[in-house]
Amino acid sequence: MLEELTSLQSFYEKARTLVSADVFSFIDGGSLDELAVKRNRQHLNDIRLVPRVLRGLGEISAQTQIFGHNLSTPVLIAPSAYHGLLSPKGELDMLEAANQFNTIMILSMFASVDHILVAQNKKGPLWLQMYFLQDRSINKNFIQMAQDNHFDALVVTVDAPVYAKKERECAQPLKFPDNTSFAHLERLGIPINQCLKTKKHLSTLLDHQISWDDLDWLAQETQLPIILKGILDPRDTEIALGYPNVKGIIISNHGGRQLDSSCTAVEIMKEHKQVVGDKVKLFLDGGIARGSDVFKALALGADATLIGRAALWALAAGGSKGVFHALSILQRELIETMILCGCASTKDITSDFIKL
C-alpha cells in the first residue's frame, strides 16, 4: 500500500480518509484565516532554481552533520502533540522511523506517550520540546526529567505566549478517546485533564509574560544545548546569540498556527544567516513538502529543515513505516534536485542556485 504513496501530498490525501474529522482539523488547521499556512507553501514554490551543468559529479550524498551527529538527510521531525491520535504506538512509531532513517525527532512536551519510555527507545539523538508555563515548577520538573533520561537538547518554543484562535478547531473541537491517559503529564505537574475539560487547551497553561530573562533562568537550570523555536525577526536572533547555551535557532511561524499575518521562514531566512554566520545552527520550519524545498532551504542558509504536519500524515497513513517512507521520498527528491543542479553534497548548496 505504501508504494502507492509517491509524494508527501499523497500521504496527506490518504490520511484524510483515515483520521476523524476533529483530528484532521486539529492538525491541518491554522490560525484565523490560515494566511500564513498558505504562504509557507507559496513562498517555497516561488523560489526558482538556477542549475549548473557539466559538473562531473561523483558520489552524491544528502548527509549532513548536526551537533556532531551524522544525519542521512537534513530533515528533522518537528515537535507536535498527541501522536497517539494517529497511531496506536504514537510517538514510539515516530521515533522508530527516526531511528531507522538516522535523523532527529523532537519530542513534544505534550506527547501521548510517556517521555521516559520514548527516551528509553532512542538509538540516536533525541531532542525534547518545551513551552514556558505559568507554573515554573512544572518546567523545573520537565527539565530534570530531560536530564535524567539523557535527552540530547532542549527545544524551547518562544512564539506561543498564548494559544492562538483556530476557527476550524472551534467549529470541530478535538476529542480524545475515553481510554486516553495523560498520567505522565500529570506526574510532571501539568494539569492536562483539567485543561482539556475547559476547552481552552493550552491557553490556561502558557505564560504570556515570557521574556529574555527566562533564558537566564533556563541557563541556571540546565546545561543541555538550547534550540529556540519560533523566531522570525533577525533582531531576536541577534539577541539570542548573546546566550552561550543557545546552540540553534529554528526560524518558524509555527506552521501558520500562531500569528496568522506573520512572515514566513522562507522570506526571512537569508537575513538570519547574515546575522548568524556559522555561530549557531539554523533550521527552517514551515511548508516543506518536496526534496526540492529542502534544497531551497539550504540555499537560503539553513543547516537543516523540519517537517511537522507531513510527518503526522505519514504516521496516520502507515505508522513507523509510513514515516520512514515519507522521509525516503524527501531524500530521493533532494538527491535528484542536487544532481540536476550540479551538487555532489549538501555543502555544495549555496544561494547561487536560487532566484527569489
UniProtKB/TrEMBL annotation:
<feature type="binding site">
    <location>
        <position position="252"/>
    </location>
    <ligand>
        <name>FMN</name>
    </ligand>
</feature>
<feature type="binding site">
    <location>
        <position position="157"/>
    </location>
    <ligand>
        <name>FMN</name>
    </ligand>
</feature>
<dbReference type="Pfam" id="PF01070">
    <property type="entry name" value="FMN_dh"/>
</dbReference>
<dbReference type="InterPro" id="IPR013785">
    <property type="entry name" value="Aldolase_TIM"/>
</dbReference>
<dbReference type="InterPro" id="IPR000262">
    <property type="entry name" value="FMN-dep_DH"/>
</dbReference>
<feature type="binding site">
    <location>
        <position position="129"/>
    </location>
    <ligand>
        <name>FMN</name>
    </ligand>
</feature>
<feature type="active site" description="Proton acceptor">
    <location>
        <position position="254"/>
    </location>
</feature>
<feature type="binding site">
    <location>
        <begin position="308"/>
        <end position="309"/>
    </location>
    <ligand>
        <name>FMN</name>
    </ligand>
</feature>
<dbReference type="InterPro" id="IPR008259">
    <property type="entry name" value="FMN_hydac_DH_AS"/>
</dbReference>
<feature type="binding site">
    <location>
        <position position="108"/>
    </location>
    <ligand>
        <name>FMN</name>
    </ligand>
</feature>
<keyword id="KW-0560">Oxidoreductase</keyword>
<feature type="binding site">
    <location>
        <position position="131"/>
    </location>
    <ligand>
        <name>glyoxylate</name>
    </ligand>
</feature>
<dbReference type="InterPro" id="IPR012133">
    <property type="entry name" value="Alpha-hydoxy_acid_DH_FMN"/>
</dbReference>
<feature type="binding site">
    <location>
        <position position="257"/>
    </location>
    <ligand>
        <name>glyoxylate</name>
    </ligand>
</feature>
<dbReference type="GO" id="GO:0003973">
    <property type="term" value="F:(S)-2-hydroxy-acid oxidase activity"/>
</dbReference>
<protein>
    <submittedName>
        <fullName>FMN-dependent dehydrogenase</fullName>
        <ecNumber>1.1.2.3</ecNumber>
        <ecNumber>1.1.3.15</ecNumber>
    </submittedName>
</protein>
<dbReference type="GO" id="GO:0010181">
    <property type="term" value="F:FMN binding"/>
</dbReference>
<dbReference type="GO" id="GO:0004460">
    <property type="term" value="F:L-lactate dehydrogenase (cytochrome) activity"/>
</dbReference>
<comment type="similarity">
    <text>Belongs to the FMN-dependent alpha-hydroxy acid dehydrogenase family.</text>
</comment>
<feature type="binding site">
    <location>
        <position position="229"/>
    </location>
    <ligand>
        <name>FMN</name>
    </ligand>
</feature>
<keyword id="KW-0285">Flavoprotein</keyword>
<feature type="domain" description="FMN hydroxy acid dehydrogenase">
    <location>
        <begin position="1"/>
        <end position="356"/>
    </location>
</feature>
<dbReference type="InterPro" id="IPR037396">
    <property type="entry name" value="FMN_HAD"/>
</dbReference>
<feature type="binding site">
    <location>
        <begin position="79"/>
        <end position="81"/>
    </location>
    <ligand>
        <name>FMN</name>
    </ligand>
</feature>
<feature type="binding site">
    <location>
        <position position="254"/>
    </location>
    <ligand>
        <name>glyoxylate</name>
    </ligand>
</feature>
<keyword id="KW-0288">FMN</keyword>
